[in-house]
Design brief:
Number of strands: 7
Largest sheet: 7 strands, mixed
Radius of gyration: 34 Å
Mean pLDDT: 84
Number of helices: 7
Strand content: 5-15%
Order of helices and strands: EEEHHEEEEHHHHH
Distance between the termini: 67 Å
Length: 308
């Protein structure tokens, strides 16, 4: 799906392409790809690079066409090992042509359009739009990190009551998401530092870049803090599981030792040999009393040692 936006004095949808408009392509169909390549003339490999979900944040130039690939946060709607991940967003520019291409529909771009419409000022040029998209991505990283933090707190509350595999797996998946976030944010920061020298930056753009740097740094530091907290939390619960397992094994060992002595006494008196107690009426009660006494003695001993 492609949408054409007039960016002068606001953001207004138009029916067809015109110079200096913003072409927003989301989940491109073959018709959209043909329009980009045949009508606008962008290099064919640009679209395939953006479609690669593992494509890193980078800057490229080919015959005057500028390609900027930015990693943005994305939440998977279906159950997945990593509920929060990052995807590439491509920005293609040349002269009076400005295009964004994303193979997923994201809340970030929907919010970006809504915010720019409420702002009502449009963009001074395509470079201004690029840095505003960078700023929006940094803000949305912080939003997603708050959601991850809430999920971590909920899982910890559940684990404080009962340690379950479901909550531990959920924490592990969030740890994977934080790893993706940290890697992508660092890539965006490196890309931003290059764009300051690659694009024609004016004074207003310089102020915007400073704001983006602040938001990116905050997002990276926040993600690192959550990752460290999550790592220490996983280690803590791993130690708790090992400690609980040790206590269970200690208790089972104590029970085995306690039951060993009555079994030994019963085996000795139950042997098919003459022991002088065959015709004694108090022989069985004596063996039973001896078994109970020895069992009670070792039970009290282990109880005193806190093995129960």
């Amino acid at each position: 799906m492609r949408t054409f936006w007039n960016t002068n004095h606001g953001l207004r949808a138009i029916d067809q392409w015109e110079p200096n408009c913003w072409v927003q392509v989301t989940c491109p169909s073959q018709e959209d790809i043909d329009f980009l390549q045949n009508t606008l003339g962008i290099p064919d490999y640009y679209v395939s690079d953006i479609a690669d979900t593992d494509e890193r944040a980078r800057y490229d130039v080919d015959e005057g066409w500028v390609l900027i690939i930015l990693r943005i946060p994305y939440v998977k709607e279906v159950r997945s090992r990593t509920p929060y991940t990052t995807i590439p967003l491509g920005i293609i520019m040349k002269g009076d042509v400005c295009i964004t291409v994303c193979n997923f529909e994201t809340n970030m771009m929907l919010d970006f359009v809504t915010y720019q419409q409420k702002r009502g000022l449009g963009f001074t040029d395509s470079v201004d739009m690029v840095f505003r998209i960078f700023l929006s991505s940094a803000v949305w990283y912080l939003k997603r990190l708050k959601q991850i933090s809430a999920r971590i707190d909920k899982a910890k509350q559940n684990l404080d009551q009962t340690i379950s595999n479901t909550d531990l797996v959920a924490l592990s998946r969030l740890q994977d998401s934080l790893t993706y976030f940290i890697t992508s944010i660092r890539g965006n920061e490196n890309l931003l530092s290059k764009l300051k020298f690659k694009l024609p930056v004016d004074e207003l753009d310089a102020d915007m870049i400073e704001d983006v740097n602040i938001e990116m740094s905050q997002a990276r530091e926040t993600a690192s803090i959550y990752a460290n907290i999550l790592e220490s939390t996983m280690d803590t619960y791993a130690n708790l599981i090992n400690n609980n397992m040790s206590n269970v094994m200690k208790m089972l060992t104590s029970i085995s030792i306690i039951l060993m002595f009555p079994t030994l006494i019963a085996s000795l008196f139950g042997m098919n040999v003459i022991n002088g107690m065959e015709s004694w009426p108090w022989g069985f009660p004596l063996a039973l009393l001896l078994s109970v006494g020895v069992t009670l003695i070792f039970f009290l001993y282990f109880k005193r040692k806190s093995w129960f």
